[in-house]
Amino acid sequence: MKPTTAAALGLAALLATAALPSAFCQEAPAEGSPAEAPEIDPAQDFSVNPFLRGEQTIAIGAGLHIPLFIAPGDTATGERTNLSLGGDFSFSYQYFVARGLAIGGSIAGAFNGTVGGLSLFTAPIAFTTAYWWSIAPFEFDVGGGVGGYMMRHDGDGMLGLFAKAGGGAYWRSASAWSVGLQTYFWLVPELHGGSYSEYTRTGGFLEVSVSALYHL
Amino acid sequence: MKILHRATLAALAAAALLASSCNNSYGVFYSIQQETEQSGSEYFKKATTTGVYKLGSGASTAYFASGTKLYTRGLADSDWSVESIGGTRDYRLLAATGNGTYLLASIYASGACKLLQREAATAWTEIDISAIPAGSWIDGLYFAGGAFFAQAHDNYENEDDETDDTYSLFYLSGTSLLACDANLQGLNYERSFSGVAYDTSTLTFWYATRKGLFSSGNPDTLATALASGTGPGGLTATSIAYFDSALFVGVYDYDEDDPYLYRLSGGSWVNVTDSDFEGPPTALCYITAPAKMLVGEALVSSSTGGGYYEGSSYSSLKSGEQDDKSYVARSESIYSTTIGSRAVNAFFWDDDNDTLFISMSPGASSASYYGLYSTVYDGSTWSGWEAE
């Protein structure tokens, strides 16, 4: 299976847009409604973000790791990544510094096979920030992260800078637990200096994973 | 304070680990881009091949590969097929060799060993082998100095006991085999032949055995053993070839597990062993343009030996595992997914079509390794190994 870049980006866009309309299309009170508003369950009050300052979450995730591109492409192989669909796992922690706004960190690992029968392992660690909101019983976030990665292939390795952006949609299955689907675009620049600068490439991957979130 | 020290040590250890993970000279994504999907013939999947030969020229060029049978394909073909020899494909190939004009094959079929030859546009014809000991197998064929040589292997039946096996060398004269010098007859089990080469500077034939070298002016004249202590004299010769105005002999000391490469030029033997050599040097090859010498190795163990070394000459050999398109493998990842850590049996360079073949013993690994790969030179870079 060799997912195309367009198909993978489409999946990411679908996940993102699935959450956005309901988040921003909240019904406004109709004009001329009775002065005394009915009692509103805070959990059902879409105008109030339930993620308060000081809250914390930890999450684990596992899913698919989709190679999108390696740029620039090699003339011998065209635009192929020579990588197959892989898997990934992640662990993250977030702390809410303001209502809906969280900062934290994440560590992940991803495997992809290569056409020659080898494997690529990528392990990024990132400082993250995200904005959360809720439409009970669903929760959504969009965010990103920057950090570094370690990569291994055929017995050799590389370190570099790392960035990711994406979001997720979760179902609050219990008072402290949420489960859902998250997708992140990974940008993996591989920079080489000096006489090896010709090896400089940038990889793009899409993480699509199931995530379990625990509200501390 | 102790906690601080431990944290510092842990941080230093982590930094060292990370630093050791970084190799600026290795392009991870670049190397992945160079990889190719290996999907060769089923005949060669996990199957050993011992050599490649060719007949014909131009568009009518045909390649032949020796394995358990003799396989063939046309220059422009991608599929290999079993060559019919003497009207049958129901045979076991014992040995093969060629010089571009003639192709020789020794087969075991219908309960007997047969030696046959053919040219590009002719059928196989049988060679008279009545001169070899009755019941012998011809399990070694060599071409050197315009002559074909055949190793007759006698008393091979009891494979559990090789000590009574003997080896004799014959040469092809017309359509019959004739015996080489008496010193090359009935050699004991330790002295099977590993190759023949012809030194054009001294007009000398050199015969490599598993226990020393012999030389003679002609195939049927006196063959003299090279004295022990002189170059590879008395040592286990694993390969022999003459190129670049010198004779090269690959040697392996099985007692000490040490490989050697000797060079004879101007009457002097010089040990030109590269310190990186690990396994028995079993294959020698030289390409004139671009100037490139290759030394292939057999395995010593699963983690030692195998693969090959290459350089513009014997003095500049380095592992073929390089991220450099001027190396025949083209990239480290292609090398390690095709050749690396596997036994090399022979090279064949087709100068007319700028194609290099490598014959391998890929082993029964779970990965999809093949016994035959080729790479093409386009005038400046190599295509990288692709399974045949």
Number of structurally distinct domains of chain A: 1
At the fold tier of CATH, the topology name of chain A is Porin
Provide the helix percentage of chain B: under 10%
What is the total tally of β strands of chain B?
Answer: 30
What is the N-to-C succession of helices and strands of chain A? HEEEEEEEE
- Rg of chain A computed from alpha carbons, rounded to a whole number of angstroms: 20 Å
Termini separation of chain B (Å)? 64 Å
Number of helices in the DSSP assignment of chain B: 3
Our Rg estimate of chain B from Cα atoms comes to 23 Å
Q: Assembly state here?
A: heterodimer
Strand order within the widest beta sheet of chain B: 1-2-3-4
pLDDT < 50 stretches of chain A: 11-35
| Strand percentage of chain B | 35-45%
Question: How confident overall, as mean pLDDT of chain B?
Answer: 91
Strand residues, percent of chain A: over 45%
Structural class of chain A: mainly beta
Strand order of the largest sheet of chain A: 1-2-3-4-5-6-7-8
- Assign an overall shape of chain B: globular
Q: Please, what is the average pLDDT of chain A?
A: 82
